DNA sequence: TGGGGTGATATTTTT
DNA sequence: TATCACCCCA
């Protein structure tokens, strides 16, 4: 990759902390990868001491790939390119003693955390489990702001926050007892440790000779704190980001961290990358015009030496169904005229549910499509169950895993037995698993229940032992065999097809474990393997998707970082984009950034659609065009489709004419 | 009284 | 597609 002047100066700047303000499509990842190469080759910094952080596994994977293509995998060896969470995990693993966790600790994903919370709430408040999600969100945002349970308690003034804070205290104690951490702890615990222990802090600061951060605008407070701790007085830091693409404020991202950099690092150098290599002039003009309506800390204007290209189109349609039909037929005829392939098109929308109508229309037109952001592999019940089995094998104190699978498949251990066991365990302050072995238990449960429990726990012991003694993946396979899991899945699926799918997922999971185990020299124990998996997602999926010739359907959020020659941005309506809750909250700027992200995904041509009515709460409601459309340069927009009034007959004629047209073209 | 079945309803998502 | 609320039946 050939760098322009600005990019080159960003790569070579080493005199202090650097903020690279990288507009959409300005080659920001290239700057990071080139800088890593530069640090190793020209500055002689050991690869082992360079850390680059991203937010997603995919971004980390791509970055690794690009660096090793550039340098050769030999020179790139030892580089630490990972997500924030993976780095956090690494710190925790190495500092277990300071943190007083045992080395077989579990990582809970959001669903595990929620079920822990639901349990706690059942005990503490009776039955308000419906609110578990809200409390979970509150705890997560506390942790993201480095607020400890005790601080949360003292800060909360209203009753509801007070309640949430008390649940936070309980929750954290329970995690400890389970020897488990949640996702937020992966950042929170390292930061707390680095803050409080000077020796540890210095050790880690010495490990990091240079730190690079991608998508900096997405950092939350705890991540920013981690960055500051690691950088230390050396100030060897490059962050790359674009405040105009900050679309995750609702998740705790703090775009103002961009501003804080200025205060926290007085010598901060700012380099702007404003040349765009992606989009036509018309698209850039639209992007610049719309985002100029936001307040800015750092001003920037994208430009390009590509031609102006085609005007942007706005198509008004009747309703949801008509919108999907229009997009499908526009896409068909465009593809035919320009001899393009399907994967050059993307349909972007605000909410996942909007995809339904498009899926239906695309199927009717026989257009292959791929929907991203569907159910992840790890949310399938059979995968979750199996992961719980493996977790319990590794960490017998993981009560969340125990509860999930103790009676799946059926082992005649019913709810009342579990309750008695839980009571017994909580009085003795031991885990459910440990309680199964206590002699005193027989006074509390029936003889039959006791023998079921003992059979189960004995079986877990055997599985655990096997995992320690023999190959971990073999041990998992043996465990699956010994409980006849496949048979159970067959018997408990609605259809043959569903059973096949589930069994397939089980194989996919074990194959995947095998692959990870084969690929890494460091991670050998089952304990490491399972933690690794919780943080990762199945790689193959993404790769498969980009290979196939499919139209891409996704949310505007999911589209960040991607680009497509031809883009349809649908549902350009008040209430949808900007979303009505954002209008109510007054957070229009974030919605505008979302529109900006959408617009800047397009390379050659961009089409907006909007319906004049949409079904809302079962009622057909008239719809206003999105305010963002009126912010776009007027002479740059071509309005098509329905006028103000809807004449169904005329519409039908038009549709038929279009179909005839299409038939002509296809011969 | 509780659980399962049905129908309506929809911000955005990663780790 | 998933969740949630509501209703009905046991």
UniProtKB/TrEMBL annotation:
MF GO annotations: 3'-5' DNA helicase activity; ATP binding; DNA binding; hydrolase activity
Gene3D superfamilies reported in the protein's UniProt record: 1.10.10.160, P-loop containing nucleotide triphosphate hydrolases, PCRA, domain 4
Pfam families hit by this protein: UvrD-helicase, UvrD_C
EC number(s) reported in the record: 5.6.2.4
PROSITE patterns listed in its UniProt record: UVRD_HELICASE_ATP_BIND, UVRD_HELICASE_CTER
Domain called UvrD-like helicase C-terminal: residue spans: 281-561
Catalytic activity: Couples ATP hydrolysis with the unwinding of duplex DNA by translocating in the 3'-5' direction; ATP + H2O = ADP + phosphate + H(+)
InterPro entries: DExx_box_DNA_helicase_dom_sf, DNA_helicase_UvrD-like_C, DNA_helicase_UvrD/REP, Helicase_Rep, P-loop_NTPase, UvrD-like_ATP-bd
HAMAP family: Helicase_Rep
Family of the protein in this entry: Belongs to the helicase family. UvrD subfamily.
Record's protein name: DNA 3'-5' helicase
């Amino acid at each position: 990759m050939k760098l322009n002047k600005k990019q080159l100066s960003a790569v070579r700047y080493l005199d202090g902390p650097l903020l690279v303000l990288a507009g959409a499509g300005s080659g920001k990842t290239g700057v990071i990868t080139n800088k890593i190469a530069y640090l190793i080759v020209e500055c002689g910094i050991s690869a082992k001491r360079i850390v680059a952080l991203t937010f997603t596994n995919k971004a980390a994977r791509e970055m690794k790939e690009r660096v090793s293509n550039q340098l050769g995998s030999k020179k790139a060896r030892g580089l630490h390119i990972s997500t924030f969470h993976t780095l956090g995990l690494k710190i925790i693993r190495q500092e277990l003693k300071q943190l007083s966790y045992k080395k077989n600790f579990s990582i809970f994903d959001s669903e595990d955390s929620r079920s822990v919370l639901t349990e706690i709430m059942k005990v503490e408040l009776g039955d308000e489990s419906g609110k578990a999600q809200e409390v979970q969100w509150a705890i997560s945002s506390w942790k993201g702001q480095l607020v400890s349970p005790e601080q949360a308690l003292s800060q909360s003034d209203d009753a509801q926050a007070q309640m949430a804070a008390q649940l936070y205290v309980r929750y954290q104690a329970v995690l400890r007892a389970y020897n488990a951490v949640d996702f937020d702890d992966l950042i929170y615990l390292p930061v707390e440790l680095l803050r409080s222990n000077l020796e540890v802090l210095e050790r880690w600061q010495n490990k990091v000779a240079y730190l690079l951060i991608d998508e900096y605008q997405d950092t939350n407070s705890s991540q920013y704190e981690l960055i500051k701790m690691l950088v230390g007085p050396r100030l060897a830091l490059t962050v790359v980001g674009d405040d105009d693409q900050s679309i995750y404020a609702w998740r705790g991202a703090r775009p103002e961290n961009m501003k804080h950099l200025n205060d926290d690092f007085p010598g901060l150098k700012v380099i702007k990358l404003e040349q765009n290599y992606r989009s036509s002039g018309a698209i850039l003009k639209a992007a610049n015009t719309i985002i100029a309506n936001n307040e800015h800390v750092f001003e920037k204007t994208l430009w390009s030496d590509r031609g102006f290209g085609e005007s942007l189109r706005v198509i008004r349609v009747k309703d949801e169904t008509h919108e999907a039909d229009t997009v499908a037929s526009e896409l068909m005829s465009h593809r035919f005229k320009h001899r393009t392939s399907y994967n050059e098109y993307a349909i972007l929308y605000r909410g996942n549910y909007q995809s339904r109508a498009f899926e239906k229309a695309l199927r009717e037109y026989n257009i292959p499509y791929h929907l991203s952001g569907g159910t992840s592999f790890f949310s399938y019940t059979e995968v979750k169950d199996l992961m719980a089995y493996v977790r319990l094998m590794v960490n017998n104190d993981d009560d969340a895993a125990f509860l999930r699978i103790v009676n799946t498949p059926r082992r005649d251990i019913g709810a009342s037995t579990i309750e008695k066991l839980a009571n017994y365990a909580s009085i003795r302050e031991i885990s459910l698993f440990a309680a199964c072995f206590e002699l005193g238990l027989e006074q509390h449960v029936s003889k039959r229940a006791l023998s079921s429990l003992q059979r189960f726990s004995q079986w877990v012991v055997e599985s655990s032992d096997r995992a320690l003694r023999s190959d971990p993946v073999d041990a998992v396979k043996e465990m699956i065999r010994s409980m006849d899991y496949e048979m159970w899945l067959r018997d408990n699926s609605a259809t043959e097809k569903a059973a096949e799918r589930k069994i397939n997922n089980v194989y996919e999971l074990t194959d995947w474990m095998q692959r990870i185990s084969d690929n890494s020299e460091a991670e050998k124990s089952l304990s490491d393997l399972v933690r690794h998996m919780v943080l990762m997602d199945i790689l193959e999926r993404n790769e498969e998707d980009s290979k196939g010739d499919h139209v891409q359907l996704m949310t505007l959020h999911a589209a960040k970082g991607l680009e497509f020659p031809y883009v349809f941005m649908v549902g350009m309506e008040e209430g949808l984009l900007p979303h009505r809750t954002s209008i109510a909250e007054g957070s229009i700027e974030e919605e505008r950034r979302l529109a900006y992200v959408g617009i800047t995904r397009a390379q050659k041509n961009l089409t907006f659609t909007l319906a004049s009515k949409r079904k809302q709460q079962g009622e057909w409601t008239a719809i206003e065009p999105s305010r963002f459309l009126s912010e776009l340069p007027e002479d740059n927009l071509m309005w098509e489709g329905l006028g103000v009034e809807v004449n169904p007959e005329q519409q039908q004629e038009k549709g038929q004419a279009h179909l005839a047209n299409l038939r002509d073209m296809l011969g």
